[in-house]
Design brief:
homohexamer; about 40% helix; alpha+beta; elongated; about 20% strand; two-stranded antiparallel sheet
């Protein structure tokens, strides 16, 4: 359990804790002696560190992307804090809690997952209910689904973000369709809402950093997700062909237009609604994250590049 | 009260009822004698008619766009029904019910307007509550607001469509937002939802046909609506300046992007939400209208040009 | 075996052959008597026909989209040939040769398929060789693959077009790439070229007309094809994961950009090359078809809408 | 009256003059002692300054965005000039001349405004003449109108720029149109030219820096300007409705296309002409400013991002 | 000299005049006898004609695109006028006045060309003056330049349109630069204005109809014009290289952006101005033509597709 | 002949060799004494240098863009190598080998040019063969053609790149058309492939750096190339007009669309093929260069901005 975080270090402090190595280069002093420059990171930020002694030996013990336990002292160099590192010891992934190193949802993932399961019991269509059940009882899937982020940046870009986003969209669907529009197949839409982003558990890497995986870059989450869905459907005898096609259509069309990676645009009312609510939830969460991060002393955020505008903070947040 | 409608005429039937003249031209028989060709229209369709006698006199009595009461007989010409018109008498606009001639909402406009008024009482901010009240007590405004269409084509393109759309968006705001996202100014958002399209009462003409007015083409409903809102706000003493700017921002930004006529994109969470729900409601209603209109014997609609795709009808409509 | 084709009928001729019914409506003579108007189609064109006798009885025997054997006589009405139909008898799909009713490649499909098989033996990578082999030995697949069109319009929009296009792209890969660019994984590229469009066998319908299938509209050939590929790969023990991902990437990226339905753009040299050669072959064939169809007396084709220009015919075709 | 400007400071010089504080942060020396780092700005540039003494007391006396009178000495640090500040005293906005701190037109604004007034007397239509007169006699309006910039960057981005641009467009209208195209309503076009950008007086802030105001970001100058115009028109009895609509159309359509913020594109010849001349003047001035700013030793400017190209300087400027 | 024009024919009238054949097909009566259907056209419209006698012989005498002198009588068929043609005689191009068959400027081309020549004498730069002189003294060039249209449709799409447009742009240049913007090379800009569209004399065909030539479609008027300019410059000894490049830049960049066919966008102030004034003149003339053509009884034109909007006619045209 | 290259300098080394001056500024020490800061560049990189002595005199001897022979010593400053320059002597362009200073093809340009000449002998059409011959025997042309780059960045952006690219496209053409598509005019296509980019020899500067020339920016290589081609064609008696137009069409249309600078898109099969193969070759070479440059330790390249994606390196390069 990590206790020393980068955003609360003070000059002179002794450090004995785990960090990720996010940069590591060999440098040379004027006298030609080598030293190691590195950057140490946790979920609260990163700090420069230098290692002066036993450079050759120490250097072989760790590399870029490794978790390391270090003994170090906080010093000040050119008015900035840095670490003088005394010893370095590699730590295995299995021993660490990713939540110490990567940003994480503020909400309780166990509770969110239970909400989702409860809600999925309201799906009356037996085949759709069963396909959801197949996912929820697949412990390998569930473990990743509860921890995966929903994006690299922009919205829900933190551990647990995928679950948070999925639950939010599912609840919007529930509220919207309970009594507003007639003629919507509620079971189909709700199932689609719950499964639309499942491919993201393989599209991203989220152990030492949040980034795309090789599979994610080659195939993206729509293609990965549709394969995961195909496998579950194939395991259910007599799954009706049209139900399968309509559910798969919800998954592949949820980005709304081809330009954003959907091979086909939404062609059913359910698919149109899913696209709008998915997009709404992503945008609202992305903007809110940005509003919360931005300096409190001004009425407007800095320019928000993904949406190409400034946002007004004045009295938006209560 | 009109009783004879074009979609239920039969060969040989005698007609004595009111129609709009939507075409009128003078033609000549082979012997050089003139006759009048015209097209008579009501909300159910249109039919070709010919007038053989007293052509010069009759012709002076009515023109394109007039309502006329005609005596006529239904005949068949080249396997199509047409009218042989015996007499024509102009009828004043005041005497007719536009709902006989233009498509009309199936819902009760009085009831919808009451729902909207009731909902607007839930706005607690006194200035916003008052600005809504100013509109609802303006009888000239209300009369038009309850009968105006929400579009020329695409969605809610019928009398009462504006009210129906406004109520639907307001209810979506209420249902989706009441307890979903925190940090939303509900009063501001709900007031914006109710007033976002008010300019449409002047943007369109909807007496003898649904079309753009000259003012609508020169200025569009955003510019017209903002002026109507300015006038009401100006009549309220001490209306807070920022509340005014934020409410006006909701109106001018609700199309979401400049390409669709919003001079600025949404820059508050409320404006982003209003844009999505307005767009969702328009699209859902536009697609549903198209699904309902299309021939029942196929699984897919014809190509729907405004959204550039076919829609699946299979099991979408229950 | 059909012998009488629409493009060679003559006034007065007696007809006894099979056609598709592509229109059928009930009409009424001036005396109120009903008659049937229909349109009869084969691969060479279509012709209007009328049935005057036993209308109610005859009408129940066939409908739109059916194959029918008719007894009829060719007559002239308003300077156009039409059929006076004496009797109609429905014919089952199984009894007809689709090639009589839909346009068809001029090349020998058996020979083309053998060429493809031969070429696929040059793939040395055992897993890729095996995945191809799995497809070629799947007789249900092969039957459809040899008859499917490659498009609805634009290029290779005829029976056998998919095979013709696939073979052409594979040969381009072979000819252009064999010794031109170094560093290309030839086996991967060739396998991708052969399998890139396989999903089209389910994306289209091509029995009585060439059109999209419901599955095709909901999912498109990239999603369908990737599922077919997944199934074959799953049946091969120890298929290397990276080879699988790279091959699937070739399939999903071959349209080159998201706007044209590829969820991801090409991210390997092989994928970039496949996209270019696929696009080149489609365009060349689409233009050539258009050049060949256009009237011989002018130097320029009419405006070719899919590519938004006229094409020069002067001395292009030898 | 400011006499010491940043672009002419020399090492060792004693400074006693007014600057704007455009950055201010608290820093710490290696011994832990705090000092103030700040940036001081006037219309000629900005310079870094440090305050070593009485840091806590001094720090409370001024903040970011304030005008301050400082006693300081120019020193050199790492080969760059900086200020060692000895005392700081806040100065009220009312006491300073914004022209000392913000870039300013080189032309005489009084003279330009007189030219515009003179030209507006040539408008013969009494209602249009009167609406111009209402603006020119509104001293609050005129004061802002003569000092406002026409843009944040790109063109006329300096005090007085709005007046300069308005006068230039009005003169282009006069020169080009007086006898060139027939069928133009000169009075309407000239009035539109004079009023098309009036909303900019509230769209921007231009006291301590040139930037968007909150109202400008929420509503933009088209919406603000149309409201200002509405108010003047409302104060003129019997202003003809169509003249009002056509004049307002000139204002709302002058950006030419919706993408650039015009809710409707130009739909009259006058509106088309105004758009072209407004755009031409903005571009020419923007390019000329850029040409003048760029280093004299090359034939080409650096890449000009707003127009995405280099400009040739060779013999363009005489 | 043609005296009988299609827009003033009356039933029963005898015709003996020249027309262009714009359609010609062989048809068959019910008795199998052949007859010729043709369409005869002049600058005022076109009319259907039939030839009943000596069909085989007559048919060999003329074809599509030929000028023919006909003897005919005007008759009425299905309430439309048509010609019963009694004899047909081919007429050579040299004998006809294209202005009888194609739309033509209303202005005097000789006078316009003199204006242009006069204006070109004001170019003081000797090399530019000389290059203009070389064009004006080239009688083959001048003959085409005075008769060519400036477009196929849209603006100045009539004989003499190129000269009219060129003169208009040159006069705009003259007025604009005389005293408005400083730093413009007037000689260069004026020469560019006069020569920017010269390639159109070969880009279009304008003998029997206005259309693109083969060269025009393969190369367009920018490429053709630059070659014409190169030839003249090559004939002038010691023409300065930079003047040549800048003048050629004006020609190739005048469409403003690559999307509209300019290989490079304008990169000098002169080129920017030429682009704006060329575009302004084209648009104003295109809109005016459309306004004048449209029915007088409405306030708005029909939808003007090239600019994607309706135009207001109310009080625009004086 | 240069022997000391920047990428292999070592601390303490004595330098006596030629470099290009790519930066030169006068700076001042704290004591006010001036010194020269400069940057010295060759094809392997660049290094900062300082000159402490005889500053005024030395400074007059060389400037930005000059080749200089320097005596210097390599030292280390802030952990970076730099040069302490003892003497500087300007060297004339004629004395240096541009290949020492600019990146250069790895292939033998003499051999590549011979291959191209050999291949051009296969063009049977005598006029096309002759036009190629005219270029190959023009020694001024050939010298530039063999050394010019094919681009500033992106692909073949090195000396000899134009020849390498031209040869590659010509060979692709040869392979493609030998036995694949029928109906292609091989002679025309091959000639076009060889001449499509000739204008680049003047579009770029490639003596001391690779950049656009003034002519290149004003006119681009399509306009420049077409003029070069016009001159050669004009020197061949009786060159057929249509052959000329079709060949010129290949040159002007090879960028495929107007957006990329082709005034007309390809309108013949030959032009379509040339565009595809030119684009394919550019993209493949651009990607390969980027793959080769990127760090070996990762599976993916950094984001490749020109094509807006990462590329997979895994097993792409053999």
């Amino acid at each position: 359990m990590k206790t020393q975080f980068i955003d609360s270090l003070a000059d002179g402090q002794a450090i004995q804790d785990v960090f990720i190595v996010t940069e590591k280069t060999m440098a040379h002093k004027k006298d030609g002696e080598p030293f190691i420059q590195a950057r140490f990171t946790d979920r609260t930020g990163s700090i420069r560190g230098v290692i002066w002694d036993n450079v050759e030996t120490v250097s072989t013990r760790f590399g870029h992307g490794d978790y390391v336990k270090i003994n170090a002292r906080v010093t000040t160099y050119r008015e900035t804090l840095q670490l003088t590192v005394l010893s370095v010891q590699r730590v295995m992934k299995e021993q660490i809690d990713p939540g110490d190193f990567l940003p994480k949802t503020k909400r309780d993932t166990t509770q969110m997952f239970q909400q989702l399961q409860t809600q999925s019991q309201s799906v009356k269509n037996p085949h759709l209910n069963l396909v959801l059940h197949k996912f929820w009882e697949d412990s390998v899937f569930v473990e990743k689904f509860c921890i995966a982020p929903a994006a690299i940046k922009m919205h829900h870009a933190y551990l647990g973000g995928l679950l948070e986003h999925t639950l939010s969209v599912s609840m919007l669907v529930d509220r919207l369709i309970k009594c507003h529009y007639r003629g919507i197949d509620r079971d189909l839409l709700l199932t689609g809402a719950m499964l639309h982003d499942i491919g993201k558990i393989e599209e991203y890497e989220y152990t030492t950093m949040i980034d795309y995986s090789t599979e994610g870059r080659l195939l993206n989450h729509i293609i990965i997700g549709i394969r995961m869905l195909d496998e579950k459907i194939a395991s259910i005898p007599n799954f009706p062909e049209m139900t399968s096609q309509l559910l798969r259509h919800l998954v592949i069309s949820h980005h709304g237009v081809r330009e954003y990676g959907s091979p086909e645009p939404p062609k059913t009312l359910e698919a149109v609604i899913l696209h709008y609510l998915d997009d709404l939830d992503s945008k609202i969460m992305g903007i809110r994250d940005y509003l919360e991060k931005s300096d409190e002393s001004t009425q407007w955020t800095p320019f928000f590049y993904p949406m190409e505008r400034h946002f007004y903070k004045g009295n938006t947040l209560c």
